[in-house]
Amino acid sequence: MTSDELCYHGDGSVIEGPAPFFTRVESLDDPRHYLAEDGLRDAVNVAMTLGIPLLVTGEPGTGKTQLAWSVAHELGLGEPLVFSAKTTSLAQDLFYRYDALGHFRQSRFGGDDVPVMKFVEFEALGIASLLMMEHTDADPYLPPQYRGLGPRRAVVLIDEIDKAPRDLPNDILREIETMTFRVKEAGLNFPPDGLADSRYRPIVIITSNSEKNLPDAFLRRCAFFHISFPDKARLVEIVNRKFGRTRWFTPQRVAEAVEKFSLVRNLSLRKPPATAEFLAWMHILRERDVDPRDITSGAREAIAFTAAILSKNREDAEQIAGAF
After folding, report:
1. Whole-model pTM?
2. What is the mean pLDDT of residues 38-51?
3. Range 38-226: architecture per CATH
4. Which residue in 287, 232, 288 sits closest to 256, CA to CA?
């Protein structure tokens, strides 16, 4: 059965045989294939040296989030601890969450001696702070997968902080500087003696899509880097890193795909596609065996078919289809 027969045709016909399996392209998310530009590499090292958070901005899809996985991988620190900011996030949420309703129910039906800490779940910065302690002290509070690891450093990713309420960045300044916090419901401080071993200070990476301005007091305490959209030469390099030099990804095909993608980027689009969309587009071209150098009408239609990943609204879709 050919790959074409395993596709959705949209005409009511039933495909014989099993539906195609989804195959994840692991190389797209593999931190070994992340390519940091020189300025970003320097910003990471400055933040680590000074022990301050690194604030990374850039349009969606330029690799801000993947940076945390790259840093954690290269430094041998396992997967980063991730906190995804929301419009309802509070400063406390970065360290722990308290299930007040669950505690109330258990106390009501199970007695008054139910430990408060049974209803406390530590979040990214809280786990990072606990990992700075000796594991014998931290393990009673840590999730199972982190027990026995401390003391050690961790990489913490605070993703899309601009989605959080404006006061949140300022509210966490002291805690990030001291890496200490208090679970007020239990009356416990972490670390218990109030002192964290600075040698194991976490590497904090904060991303922002610049949807709103962050407070000046917060910005002054961060290192900063803006990831710009890569030029053509760098796009070629990124493709080679992500997919490797295979029989399909020839230099000529990659160069032509970069040219066509650059043409799309130069259109007056409401939402220009970023690096992530470009890599997904390259994957589709390979899977459908569409040569971006082919100028025949059939090939142009095939390329236009793959362009669904490049547009995010009707107006952009029409422009992109016309460009091909």
Report:
1. 0.86
2. 96
3. 3-Layer(aba) Sandwich (3.40)
4. 232
Domain layout of the chain by residue ranges: 38-226, 230-323
Cα 58–chain centre separation: 13
Query: Is residue 238 within 8 Å of 279, Cβ to Cβ?
Result: yes
Rounded CA-CA distance 112/214 in Å is: 43
Q: Are 127 and 204 in contact (CB under 8 A)?
A: no
Q: Nearest to residue 234, comparing CAs of 76, 11, 37? A: 37
How far apart CA 271 and CA 111 sit, in angstroms, is: 56
| Interval 190-208: pLDDT, tens | 987 766 788 999 999 999 9
Tell me: the pLDDT tens digits for 117-168? 989 999 999 999 999 999 999 999 999 999 999 899 999 999 999 999 988 9
Q: In 3D, which of 253, 224, 215 has the Cα closest to residue 236?
A: 253
